[in-house]
Amino acid sequence: CSSDLEKWGWLGDLKSRLYTVLDKLQTDEEREMAARVLEAECDSYFEEGDIRKARFYIDLVLRLEDNPRIREKKKKIDWYLQLRRELDELKDDEEMAYTIFLTATRLFYGEFFTPEELDVYLPTVDSFMEQVMGTNRDYLRSLKRLEKKYPALYQQYRDEWEDKRAEKREPEESVGRKRDAQHEQLSLDQSVLPRYEQTDEGTVVKKGRDVGRNDPCPCGSGRKYKKCCGR
Hints:
Helix content: 55-70%
Number of strands: 2
Shape: rod-shaped
Strand order of the largest sheet: 1-2
Structural class: mainly alpha
């Protein structure tokens, strides 16, 4: 909103002074010429990713001509300004995975710069970095926080975040399926372990075959019985 620009001190004061100058333009030709020059500056800053300065200039254009086209451009700039605000907050969010901040930064500035230009200033987020910086579970938890606390950033790049969610969730679900399968195998293999039962005569007898301490553990872990369930 406009109040945010005023907080910048001298920039807000400069805008007020420029309003005074623009209001003194008398002819339609003068106002049209000034509007086009200011709009060109606005477009130039926006293309460079300097959203705050683009917002400054679009306000000046609106002072000269308030029409649907300019208002639509202002609406777009305001949206990107919101993205930039959330990105600034994300940078200081200690509960957020650092790789998500880097990814969000590259996605945002990737709309204004080429990948080669981004690589000069930002590290590339690859699978190795993601593994070093945290687990899949940490990443999924941060994605959930991103969706809730930074809705503009999540909405703008929803497809990328959803792809990441699916990519990180698959190994987690695979681990869960493997664990469930091991538990199921364990319950099935309990029958091969020795069981002790009491006969009608009161004698305790052992049934089922013995598992050697160096035999593979029946639970399916792949370890020796003495190192697993035989401890």
